[in-house]
Every structure is written in structure tokens, then in C-alpha cells.
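From: lab user (bench 3)
To: helpdesk
Subject: output format question, protein + 6-O-phosphono-alpha-D-fructofuranose

Hello, I'm new to running complex predictions and I'm not sure whether the block I got back is the full result or only part of it. Here's what I submitted:
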Amino acid sequence: MENFDKAVIPEQSLDRDCQTLSRHVLQQFSNFTTEAQDVSSIMNRIALAAKLVSRRLSRAGLMAGVLGFTGETNVQGESVKKMDIYANDVFISVFKQSGLVCRLASEEMEKPYYIPENCPIGRYTLLYDPIDGSSNVDINLNVGSIFSLRQQQGDDLDGEAQDLLQDGDRQIGAGYVLYGPSTVLVYTLGKGVHSFILDPSLGEFILAEENITIPSHGPVYSVNEGNYWQWDESIREYIRYVHRHEGYTSRYSGALVGDFHRILLQGGVFLYPGTVKKPEGKLRLLYESAPLALLAEQAGGQASTGMERLLSVVPDKLHQRTPLVIGSTEDVQLVESFIQDWARRESEQQALV
Ligand code: P6P
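Helpdesk reply: Thanks, we reran it on our side. This is the complete output you should expect:
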């Protein structure tokens, strides 16, 4: 019979439980500057928002008024889920009286939301998709939140937040929360990609993996093949290629965060191409594609519109959409080769007319 009278906590588990998100964020800075403190506080608030959303999702089916639609349509023209609104408000609430974030721009709000008591002291703006993949909420499948942190440029006196219309390289940090069997927070501040798992017994996000790297190739291609007949011929050619060649498998959950997380860890490519009707595609640049593109590049992967590097795209409006091809370098480049070969053949044809 083992001797159980000494309740010894193995050192490694104690040390591990202390590897919290806020400590890790501070370690990303070489010293404890005000910027380091501010960004650490911001990440802590994002973590609080994630905990609040995770708690509500875990009990959604048991509570009245959590699931289902509000009956409203958002600026994207999409039907709004009650969970979309709840999560949107959570992110706003956690930054009130923080002096940190002056503005929040969200998929669910046509204009940025200003927190008066934080402006203009708080020089940061949070851009976010509060619930990504909300069609999965009512059927208890994974959903996510995506966030991007930018520094305010100038004074934004007209309240139009025009300074947000800049390329993705201007992001200070980015990340997402994946609400799955466990709640995982993945972030980068430009020094690698790191993941944390929420320990509900502690109420803390504990470090799971540091400096995550995307394999240079992976078997997964993730795309909604239901749109096949709406795609340009170049994308159809790519799909026929992966259908015919060994070593590829399709995975698509209907929630970008979960599909991207799989590719971040196992390799492969996610694509949401433009269609003939919507050449710009569906995904929003500033708070969906650009944050994930920063993570992808920080993890040694790649992200493009199919024609140009995603992080170089300068939007002309807050809710601009772009096509997205993101994941392992070899797989993104393979998709790009089909698109660019097709574009070249098209222009050669035009030249002959
Ligand atoms: P479709 C969810 O609405 C979302 O924005 C992403 O999370 C997801 O990848 C995509 O749209 C799914 O779109 O057209 O395949 O249903």
C-alpha cells in the first residue's frame, strides 16, 4: 500500500500552475515598462472576457435566453445570435474603467465603440470577433473569439477611427480563444505564438505550449466545398488536385478558429476564396484574417489573399473582407500557384484577343 500520509505536490505541477498568462506576457518584454504593464493588463482583461464567455457557453443549454437568434441583422447582413451580443458586450465591459482601451471595433458593431473615461489616455484599440462561428453555438460545437490589438495613431477627433485602416503589420498583438472541450487562448505579441489552457479550478489560463510552429506541410485542406460552383476555375483546379493526390484529407467545422487551430498544430491549409458573386470572400480583414495571419507568420506559416501577402493589405473600410489562404507555407504556396498560374493564362488569353 503506498504511503499517502505526505500530501506532496510535485514541484513541476506547482511551477506549472504559476505559468499564468499575465506572467508570460510580462516575460515577452525585456523590462517592466509601462507598455509591458499595459499590454499585460490588456491580455488579462481579454482572459477575463474569455472566462465569462466560456462560462456562459458551458451552461447555455440550461439557461433561458442564451441560445437562438435575437431577430436582428448585423452590419454584415448576418442574423445575430444572442450569444454574439452577449460576447460583444462582455469585451466592452471588461475594458470599462481600465484606462487601457479607448476604442473597440467588432464584427457586431457598425462603428467603433468608444469608452469615454478611457479616451484619450488609453492609447489602445481592440478589434475583435466576439463569437466566431456562432452557427455552431446552438449545436454545442466549437466556436471562438478572435482579437487584434492596435495602438491608436493620432487623435481620432471625428470618431471615425480612420487610423485603424492600416496594414496588419501594425498590429501590436493578436490571438484567439477556442471554446472547445477545453478553453484555449493562443496569442502573439510578435515574439512567437503561445497557447494557454483555462484551468477552471484556478480560474487561470496556464501555459500549455510556447513558440508553436506550423509544420511546413500538412494533410488537411479546410474549405467549404459546398461553394465549389461559385469559385473561380483556379480554386476548382486546386480542389481537383487534392482530390486526385494521396495524402490529403478534408476537415471543415464552420468555425474559422477551430479550423485554424487544427492547422496551427498539425499543418495544412484553410481557404475561404472569393466567389464569382463575392470576389472579396466572406472573412473580415481587420478582426478575423489579419489577427490569424499574424499568428500564422509568427508560427512560421503563411497567409495571403491568394494574390498578395495578407498582412500587407490596407483596408479602405472597417469591415472590409478579403479572400483568405492560410496555413503551412508549402500548402499556401500550392494554392497560390493555381491562382497565379490561372491569372497568367487568363491575361495571355486576353492578349491574344
Ligand atoms: P460558410 C463563421 O460565420 C465564419 O465567419 C467563419 O468562422 C467560418 O470559417 C465561415 O464563416 C464559415 O462560412 O460560408 O462556410 O458557412
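A quick orientation on your result: Residues 132-133, 135, 224, 254-256, 282-283 surround 6-O-phosphono-alpha-D-fructofuranose (CB under 6 Å). Let us know if anything else is unclear.
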